[in-house]
Design a protein that fits this description.
Radius of gyration: 20 Å
Number of helices: 11
Helix content: 25-40%
Oligomer: single chain
Distance between the termini: 22 Å
Shape: globular
Number of strands: 10
Structural class: alpha/beta
Strand content: 5-15%
Length: about 450
């Protein structure tokens, strides 16, 4: 039996009016953290293959990100750290023992072939996406390779090396007075919160497992510092969060955030490790429950950058991000998966949606209501029009960060992107460095 799954949308704006851009580079799936490591960039390639075979790419402008320079990464990260990532390889690690320890590179964040190029790829998609939002070339931009939210100014952390979330927010701040960051990864978005902890131009909102769980931060009482007080919102959760419980806290808290903070742009980190059955996670969300968060924020019709993040059960992450792509473009998709290059991964049911487990939800209604009330009280303290200078420790990342010198990565259809071809499925590619997409990359056969 074939079931059509209707993406959720609670907004009054018609789905067809959303201009969606999608960033993807086929190279991203070639990078490998190492044998047995739970982080597998291959999941982004699997997601893209499903997006193509569902035909969702026809509803979006698809771009390959233009690689940003190492200098652009120092908008947030320290020069020493970026220079280290540029030179470190598996072959010369023994020459950099002290720096490996200093920058926390080696175990959770291993050195692997092409490490810096991998960082450039995922970060360029996020910054390129933010640039498209800034120039009003898109309403929503997707970069499933991004969302690596743990990286610090001068330290790798939690499988993350460059914090593309922070860099994308800094790009958005060139145009928007206030930017909202939302994190539905099971892990606390500590790197992003830390970067903007003392400013009121960025509000960070994180729903995460708390208590003897990486990274160990994100207590409900961590609300920001100085001018950033009340602009860090943390909802610590216990094992077993299900769809109903998650919705009962996400929508009221974010409704109040939108009411009081009134952001000009949103960055939504959609880590899929909060799904039921994740290799490293302990929540019990369905694909649809996870995607309901995307649909809810989409309904506000505010420029939004949608990023990936965690997600360590290889067969489930592409299901989640493909369905969320469908939600973003407003296109119904069948539950039966189309044939694709990785079809065997999705057996034995070969369906987009999976049943959740019967694990107990350790979050009582009393606890959830109490924490929700506490956060809403904090949000009532938010000043109506924030405007304090950004300080991330780098000279160029203050109130009006100096530009990257990055124009849009490729023209939109209106500007002659896909419109240069009679084939509506052909991908825009204005790059002059000779790296064209493979002719079969967007083939659905």
């Amino acid at each position: 039996m074939t079931m059509e799954t209707e993406p959720t949308s609670t907004g009054s704006t018609s789905a067809s009016s959303r201009r969606v851009s999608y960033f993807y580079d086929a190279e991203v799936g070639n990078y490998h953290y190492g044998q047995g490591h739970p982080m597998k960039p291959h999941r982004v390639r699997m997601t893209h293959n499903l997006v193509v075979n569902y035909g969702l790419y026809k509803k979006m402008d698809v771009f390959r990100p233009r690689l940003l320079s190492p200098t652009a990464m120092t908008r947030f990260h320290s020069d020493d750290y970026i220079n280290f990532l540029k030179v470190i390889t598996p072959d010369n690690m023994t020459d950099y023992t002290r720096q490996l320890q200093r920058f926390n590179v080696g175990e959770d964040c291993p050195v692997f072939d092409g490490l810096f190029e991998f960082c450039q790829l995922y970060t360029s998609g996020s910054i390129g996406g933010a640039a498209r939002l800034n120039e009003d070339s898109a309403d929503i931009v997707i970069n499933w390779s991004g969302g690596l939210h743990h990286a610090k100014k001068a330290e790798a952390s939690g499988f993350c090396y460059i914090n593309d979330c922070v860099l994308a927010i800094l790009e958005l701040l060139k145009k928007h007075e206030r930017v909202l960051y939302i994190d539905i990864d099971i892990h606390h978005g500590d790197g992003v919160e830390e970067a903007f902890y003392s400013t009121n131009r960025v509000m960070t909102v994180s729903f995460h497992k708390f208590g003897e769980y990486f990274p160990g931060t994100g207590d409900v009482n961590d609300i920001g510092y100085a001018d950033g007080k009340n602009y860090a919102i943390n909802f610590p959760l216990n094992d077993g969060m299900d769809d109903e419980a998650y919705e009962s806290v996400f929508k009221p808290v974010l409704s109040k955030v939108m009411e009081h903070f009134a952001p000009g742009a949103i960055v939504l980190q959609c880590g899929a490790d909060s799904l039921s059955g994740d290799r490293l996670g302990c929540f019990n969300l369905s694909v649809k429950g996870h995607a309901d968060c995307v649909a809810f924020m989409r309904s506000y019709n505010i420029p939004m950058l949608v990023l990936g993040g965690g997600g360590y059960t290889l067969r489930n992450v592409p299901r989640c991000w493909t369905y969320e792509t469908a939600v973003v473009v407003g296109e119904p998709v069948k539950d039966d998966l189309p044939f694709n290059d990785y079809y065997d991964y999705f057996g034995p049911d070969y369906s987009l949606h999976l049943p959740v487990s019967n694990m107990e939800n350790l979050n009582s209604k009393e606890y959830l209501n109490r924490t929700k009330t506490q956060l809403i009280d904090i949000l009532r303290e938010v000043e109506p029009v924030p405007g304090t200078q950004i300080q991330t420790g780098q000279v160029e990342s203050q109130l009006n960060p100096r530009g990257f010198g990055m124009e849009a990565d490729a023209p939109s259809k209106d500007e002659g992107g896909n419109a240069k071809s009679d084939n509506p499925d052909e991908r825009s590619d204005e790059r002059m460095d000779g790296r064209k997409e493979h002719s079969a990359e967007l083939s659905s056969t």
